[in-house]
């Protein structure tokens, strides 16, 4: 492996506080943009289309592999493809594959090998073994096909990802080549989503958790409070007797109902503070019905709920850059709305 330089230990190095300024960043971002434009301008779309079609037509599983940073990108692309639910997809660590994990590959599977140089020893060792298992091999390399890219010769299909250079000071660290790999892989997957006409429901079925799950799956009925979770009281109840109900249900209000559980009005924690300030000790003799906010009819209440939902959605849209395509999630509906909707049935 050659002779590595002996570096001074950190405690012996002179103390110097490093700084990065806007003037340092600007030329680097400009250089990165030029490198990415170089990639976009010179990418062979016929190769890209052949790669996308191979993934679409794969009769078996699709595996991605790579070494170092290319391996990290390979894992990410594999996980994104798996999330679509069209085919079994996964990451195959090249060294582990040579020590038994290649048993996961069956005839008809596709193996995509990512390598900036196209000369990674681990991938060159893996390729003939995967071919012997009956896999279809595709290489994604920044080295053009030929003597400088032995991996392309070992595969059934090679996609050249044009690379003008890395923006690191030495031109070595994969800070541009990995960006190109990621952009290429994710763009192809977006094309596959369109080709397969992936629906929102299909996509949601593989994303039950997180922000995507809340956005696509959760409905108002899934997050609204039900039955004993509701802060209910009768209009004849004493205000001070309902403090526990007001504070323990996490809604910030009491829902005042009649004997048949029809909603009469609300009494909020703000109402409590205002009543205490205005009445003082007399609050101990007041009923909820005397001080609650009564609704003339349920239609008015539903109108207020809709306003609450609209304002919640507008706030979320503004926070997310004005994209109005999202559905209502749990974080876009106030506890008050959830409680009122439940009471309205």
UniProtKB/TrEMBL annotation:
Quick check: keyword Zinc-finger in the entry?
A: no
Q: Keyword annotations for this protein?
A: CBS domain
Q: Where is the SIS domain?
A: 51-198
Give the domain of life: Eukaryota
- Please state every residue range assigned to the domain named CBS: 224-283
Q: Does the keyword Heme apply?
A: no
| One Pfam family matching this protein | CBS
Q: What is this protein called?
A: Arabinose 5-phosphate isomerase
Upper taxonomic classification of the species? Eukaryota, Viridiplantae, Streptophyta, Embryophyta, Tracheophyta
Q: Which InterPro entries match?
A: CBS_dom (IPR000644), CBS_dom_sf (IPR046342), SIS_dom (IPR001347), SIS_dom_sf (IPR046348), SIS_Kpsf (IPR035474)
């Amino acid at each position: 492996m050659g002779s590595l330089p002996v570096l001074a230990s950190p405690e012996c190095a002179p103390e110097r506080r490093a700084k990065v300024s806007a003037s340092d960043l600007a030329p680097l971002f400009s250089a990165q943009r030029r490198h990415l434009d170089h990639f976009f301008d010179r990418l062979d779309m016929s190769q890209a289309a052949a790669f996308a079609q191979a993934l679409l037509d794969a009769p078996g599983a699709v595996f991605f592999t790579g070494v170092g940073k290319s391996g990290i990108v390979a894992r990410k692309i594999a996980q994104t493809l798996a999330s679509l639910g069209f085919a079994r997809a996964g990451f195959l660590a090249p060294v582990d594959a040579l020590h038994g994990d290649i048993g996961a590959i069956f005839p008809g599977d596709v193996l995509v090998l990512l390598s900036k140089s196209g000369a990674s020893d681990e991938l060159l060792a893996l390729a003939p073994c995967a071919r012997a298992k009956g896999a279809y091999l595709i290489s994604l390399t920044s080295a053009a096909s030929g003597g400088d890219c032995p991996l392309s010769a070992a595969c059934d299909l090679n996609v050249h990802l044009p690379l003008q250079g890395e923006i690191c000071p030495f031109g070595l660290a994969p800070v541009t080549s990995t960006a190109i790999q990621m952009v290429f892989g994710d763009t192809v997957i977006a094309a596959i989503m369109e080709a397969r006409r992936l629906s929102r429901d299909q996509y949601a079925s593989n994303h039950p958790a997180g922000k995507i799950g809340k956005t696509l799956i959760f409905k108002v009925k899934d997050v609204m409070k039900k039955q004993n979770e509701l802060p209910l009281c009768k209009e004849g109840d004493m205000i001070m007797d309902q403090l526990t109900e007001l504070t323990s249900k996490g809604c910030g209000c009491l829902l005042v109902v009649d004997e048949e559980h029809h909603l009469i009005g609300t009494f909020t924690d703000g109402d409590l503070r205002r009543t205490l300030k205005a009445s003082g000790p007399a609050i101990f003799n007041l009923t909820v019905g005397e001080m609650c906010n009564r609704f003339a009819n349920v239609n008015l209440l539903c109108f207020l709920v809709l306003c609450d939902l609209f304002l919640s959605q507008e706030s979320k849209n503004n926070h997310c850059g004005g994209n109005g395509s999202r559905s209502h999630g749990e974080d876009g509906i106030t506890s008050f709305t959830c409680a009122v909707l439940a009471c309205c049935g």
